[in-house]
Amino acid sequence: MTDKTPTGPGKGDHLYLIDGSGYIFRAYHALPPLTRKSDGLPVGAVHGFCAMLWKLLEETKGEDAPTHLAVIFDASGVSFRNEIYPAYKAQRPEPPEDLVPQFGLIRDATRAFGLPCVEMEGFEADDLIATYARQAADAGAKVTVISSDKDLMQLVREGVELMDPVKARRIGPEEVMEKFGVTPGKVIDVQALAGDSVDNVPGVPGIGVKTAAQLLDTYGDLETLLEKAEEIKQPKRRENLIAFADQARVSKLLVTLKDDVEVPEPLSDFAVRDPEAGPLVGFLKAMEFTTLTKRIAGKLDADAGEISATAEFAADPDAAVDEAPPVEAGAPGAAVAGQAAPIDTAAYQTVTDMETLDRWIARCFAAGVIAVDTETDSLDAASANLVGVSLATGVNQACYIPLAHRAGDGLDLDGNGDAPKQLDRAEVLERLRPLLADPATLKVGQNIKYDLLVLARHGVEVAPYDDTMLISYTLEAGAHGHGMDELSKLHLDHAPIPFKEIAGSGKSAKTFDLVPIADATRYAAEDADVTLRLWNVLKPRLLAERKVTVYETLERPMARVLAGMEREGVKVDVKVLNRLSNDFAKEMARLEEEIFALAGERFTIGSPKQLGEILFGKMGLVSAKKTATGQAATGADVLEELAAQGHDLPARVLDWRQVSKLKSTYTDALPTYINKETGRVHTSYSLAATTTGRLASSEPNLQNIPIRTDMGREIRTAFIAEPGNVLISADYSQIELRLLAHIADIPQLKTAFAHGLDIHALTASEMFGVPVEGMDPSVRRRAKAINFGIIYGISAFGLANQLHIPQEEARTYIARYFERFPGIRTYMDETKAFAREHGYVETIFGRRIHVRGIDQKQPSARAFAERAAINAPIQGAAADIIRRAMIRLPGELAAARLKARMLLQVHDELIFEVPEDEADKTAALVKRVMEGATLPARQLSVPLTVETGRGPNWDAAH
DNA sequence: GTGTGGCA
DNA sequence: TGCCACAC
Known about the structure:
This protein is α/β, with parallel strands linked by helices.
């Protein structure tokens, strides 16, 4: 290998063009998986690529030795072909998880070899390869295209060959003939007819490669064939060729590679030079390719021991799996500040011109993994306007693109009196669109559901994505919160700029669009920078701690599913709410007068303090207990007790409280959440708020709409469907008890569920020795309360309160329960012991829930933690199951061509809005999917049953 | 057992 | 911030 004068390749030269993007997929599937030892980073394709490059440069001799070489990549998921046919390559699946980081690494490898990396927005790698191949072949040089992509076979001609990089097999005209049955010149026509389901090239129905070759053999070329289609004997084939002639022509446009692209770099730049030992060996060392490092260092006359691994690519030593044990959740040593440079907000860039934007977009494509954060003018994603976007590509490499900052309130945003200079939002989003949709670029967000929702409202999709909040939740639910500030302090030992500092707080707080752009850049770019740093710390731990499946099947897909549900929202009938609000107000006024009459004075009923003074001071009633603050308790249980003794005032107060609650929390508050644009209520689901895996709904909370009392249940009638539609609900019946029966392995309960028996009656029968037939309802009610208590980890205290019985009696019930179902006690003891030993428990799907305080000395505090530990695997498994159903449902509904939209989740229940004529079919499908949601991950030893209901208000059967 | 929210 | 009340 010698340095040559950098001229374009001519006679006697040999140009190698490597299809970098294609190589990754090919190598991923053909080569055994390989992960970096110290942190589990998948590097199989990178290793194959480096070995292949080295072999090409070093071991290929004679006329096959490359004189020129370049690696060509796909710039993004979108090309000029999408303008011809929008569905082109539209249904490609996302690349596998462990492949994504390798896209960026292969570009890094190419640069480490000192070789050119070429890509161009709007064109596929194949088009660039076609252009360079034609230029070189026209100049008389030999060309080898390293790819096994059949689409490139059309390039084969005199002097142009393909080579399969994995099999090292050369593909010339003969091999093309073997594959397509025609000479390379007619490959395009075959593809135009046969189509390609993977790339979504339509072709002509009923015609495959074999038939296409045969037809072209007879008619010569596509145009002639289409013109003479009438002559074809087979009726179906003839009709299709006539009917789909234009589709065949469009297909031909799609498969024809463009060989006259105005390429970004001239061929003369591709002249091969000796690689520099420093960067190359440094990169190989960082990848931990020991054998390859030795071999290459030896050939380059470099001492591998002298060159250190390139820090940028090296594994984070603190994330190592074989040297250090996994970091304890929340432990002080969990901070991983060591490796990366400290946060430098001065390094961030504000993007206000297109050239800079394009440079950042190119950097993002090259990086393979980027962090994205959107800034908006409100916290409510359903109505927030996009104010800016920040991107990060590496440590301290971050930018902010302001899009809708305003010079409000006469503020001088830039300090120079001008209105803030910024790019046009729509234009920027169009530029970002290919990047955000690029299957080879992983977009990392912190709580990315928010960004998905905001961007979706601007018509921009994001895929593939990762979410640092959800990774943290997967690893350490229950150990701590998962907000960015908390994670940053914990893992990066860095406190990000507080929002308050740039936007102010309280009354003078500004929305983000009024924040000066310099401040906005510091804040927003830091968020992206921190997010990417967190990803670097947290993502490898998923692999090391064997939580990749939990993250990928239970957490990550939920962000998109919930973004969709939140965007849909649910319609509420304001008239109904207003009417109820009036009714409740009248009822409250009536009760107030009654209460004041009974008390002999007017006071604030809602004040526990004033109420206490009236009840226990003025009226001289005896207070059963005190609150934590020493105040006499006026809780429902106390008032109920007093009411039962025949006192009217506490009974009326209880009534008042109920109505007051319904009015303030529901009928008055709900209308204020109606979105002006959609006319619907868009709740927000939190994926990382609970310890167990349940969701939490807020603003408004639609998971606690009343149902138990008649007055409360009326509120549900305000939730309605659009005309011609109905709401249907589907809820898991007794899911937690079924899971308890499975997990604790209770034969009687399992049999009862298998036979569809009344589980509470059976429990009562077992415990009290009475037959199920003709059972006293109060006996069944007691058993039901005990069953619930068991799920919650039961205490005699809790059960006694629930059933209004002495603790002693409750204690004997529990003892009897354990006697009849000994598996329960075993489950509880084993779960407590497991939690004490590990600090966490797990669901049958592998979700990990950390239990804090299990080793506290104080018995009551410890017992509380123990009950949480006992409940978590049950509640958590139920949460896992409904998540699995929710993730599958949108696809299943679409596949069945049903228009149903999933609107709400209430822990064990899903609510859909459905066209009236599809209600039955939808209910059946939803039931099937929900009941089957445990498989294939788990086979339960109890059946799951789902009950569906229909109507303006959802079901009351819990 | 797990949550959110209104009110004083 | 604590208390209370709504849901599963």
